[in-house]
Known about the structure:
This protein is of the alpha/beta class. 43% of the residues lie in helices and 13% in strands. The chain is globular.
Amino acid sequence: MLTHNLGHPRIGARRELKKACENYWTGKISQHELLQTAQQLRKANWKLQKEAGLDLIPVNDFSFYDQVLDMSLMLGAIPPRYQVLQEQGVSATDLYFAMARGYQKDGLDLVAMEMTKWFDTNYHYIVPEFYQNQTFKRCSTKVLDEYREAKSMGIPAKPVLIGPVSYLLLGKEKDKDFDKLELLSSLLPVYLELLRGLEKEDVEWVQLDEPFLALDLEDKEKRAFEYAYQVIRQTFPKLKILLATYFEGIAHNLQLASSLPVCALHLDLVRAPEQLEKVINYLPEQMSLSLGVVDGRNIWKNNYESSLKLIRLAVEKLGKERVFIAPSCSLLHVPYDLELETEENSALHEVKQWLAFARQKLDETVILKELADGNTSEEVDRKFQENQQAVESRKTSELIHNQFVKDRVKAYEQAHANRKSTFTSRKAQQQASLKLSLFPTTTIGSFPQTQEVRSWRRQFKKGQLTAAQYDQLIEEETEKAIRWQEEIGIDVLVHGEFERNDMVEYFGEQLLGFVFTQNAWVQSYGSRCVKPPIIFGDVYRPEPMTVRWTSFAQRLTNKYVKGMLTGPVTILQWSFVRDDQPRSETCLQIAYAIRDEVQDLEKNGIKIIQIDEPAIREGLPLLRKDWDHYLNWAVTAFRVSAAGVEDDTQIHTHMCYSEFNDIIEHIAAMDADVISIETSRSQMELLDAFADFDYPNEIGPGVYDIHSPRVPTTEEMTALLKKAADVLPASQLWVNPDCGLKTRAWEETKQALIKMVEAAGRMRELVSKPAV
């Protein structure tokens, strides 16, 4: 049996890559220093995996920003608007970052490529752009360079590439009336060129990631897989291809997957353990099977006994020589190393015995091989016994269970999920009460958190500031934000969230059933890293979480200040969730906790409350047959959180980077009074779904992209609002950015919001003019 890894966290144990990239973008370090940091991180990752005892170690899983963007550059899939940068001789590194982040310099103003979620994860990828009759050419030797680099260190390297069919399916057609799969025949020669270069280096195994094999496929997509892999096999009859699937089972596509001329097939047996028996009975004799038995998406210890049952089943049917052992997917989605959590007095200390981060998951993979091989050494036996003791202690721990919470969820009834009146009735009451103008302006919630603001939080946690001193500083910062919003004429204000660290972490820290880490960072997009909470037990809100700061801000102004909350589905999705009960049950526990907060905000005079749910689309199962079950409990959880208020209290929600067409009916069923969404990178395309559905509630389509540092013009935002007004009535439209502004700088934020308010003013003038 061989052990291998599909991919490793790239940001570094201490987020070294994040810091290097941001320092490069701000001119604090040179390109040479950036590249040097990247090389050091790659070498550290390879060394770690080699010392763990892996037989095959991934290379080309490292990325400065995103592996899909890497692939686009490698294949020459560079959108035409960036040609001017190539003509000017801009470095490949700066071209790469311009594609990811936009470019606003020396008179050039280039918008960034679109970004969306990587399947059902909180990782974001940069969406490839495809044009009719597009040609491809190799523009980067990254995979070859990194393979040589690893080979020079004596690393048993396995190059990793996104497979050609999944790469096309990840992208978006920018021309009308053509199908991106038509580009496969012109794309494949570049793949063959990349593989030829690897073959010349005597590579034994190449991993091609084809996660779309786990999705529902149309006939044309199945034909594309068959064609692509026939061409690759005919060109490279001796190159060993390991085809990696993950995030779902492939039983529904088993005939296709098993017919592809590859040497090994990887299965995600964490998400779909039930597929194994069917696959091993169908697999052709010449194909090996990689068993993804260590969870690459969550942080709980592997149950060796359960994994060994799967491994032994495969070995019995296929023989050891045809079995690989691996994590279920890339370890990109879990933190780096549990041993970095050293605070003995924290609540995490009691839960730590049940956890495994990336470093520990490498060990689990290797130990499972030893156990499956029949290794009876004292050390291996000791590790097995320790593992089973940890699994058992988690089952029986009194930390996990809260009978009050269980009883409350058990007592759920439909009335808890319903507002008192229909939206039509509520809208009339809200218009009479709130008296907002057409195209009301607001922001999504957070304002820039400067280094100074973050330093206050660090000083407070270290005891260098008293609670009174810290509160005074936050009050002053909040008042400045309120006064500035009043000054530029924003209609519905926010308090800025200066007291908050992260939109999920902040709430989890105040809820029972959560624990937190110090260094368990994972990449969300680019240099954006998050530290997901760990939901280990029943969830309950012991006291108000946001009332103090929201009501303080409301007392400063006669305008409305939105209460800002994170919704139950997003808290669930952006946490590492307990796996000992259905996710739907955990989500409903969180929903009741948020419901309590919503009611307390209303009691304290807050008339507009936003419950953010950017992750609701992200949680959608990959197979359509599972959609209704998920959407029903997710929508129910949101409604439970929002439904306990009076009709004249306006409930907002926010969603970003989602395709809404397939779930628009369920979005409407959430029954939020106002929904704000990301639409600027897609040029308002996402609004078509709302228009086609005749969505009745109010919508705030994002008019500028906050994930890019560029500042859009007033004309640009006005043009986007005109597009929105062409498909939706003006009475339904709000004006806001795509997302929260926490990660942006104040200078660009102020410029952009002033222009946004101007754009809203222009739209009011246009609508008020009598028709000629």
